[in-house]
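Entry — protein

Goal — fold tokens:
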Amino acid sequence: LALPNNKITAIPMPIAYTPIVELEVSNNEISSLPTSLYGKRSLEKLHIDRNNFEGPLPDFAAIPKLEHIQAQYNFFTGTIHPSIGEQLSKLRNLDLSFNSLTGTIPPELGRLSRLVRLDLDNNSLTGEISPDIVSITTAIAACAKGITGIERTPFLLGHLATASQHRVYDSGLP
């Protein structure tokens, strides 16, 4: 179901109860997900970018078949919950860029063996990107002054040379 580029302020409740594979509500004025989406077994792609979400990230791990999460350009705060890496084994694309997330990047994201793209640009994250995360993804974007981990291991440098895109901005890398 695609409803992007409108002025929708909420996801209509009947949609939440319909078995859908993809929900695209990008570029609207939505500020919360209906609780009926949690536990939805059919949903694989969730596009909630460019809305008015505030506060902690939704419990994405409660939507077990998610493969793509597009949640960039919102006002999310707080940390990235480790349950994303522990419970979303099919996740291939995670975009949480341009929010106000803090804390560290959970090493549990390294368990996402199907993860191809991880975008955490323009948040306030700190710490090290786990070598497990770097070794499984083909594209990482992290924009935070305190992010480290990519430059430390010669193996990772070799891996990065063959990857399509890895960016760490403002991290103090030489």
Residues 12 and 34 are 8 Å apart (CA to CA).
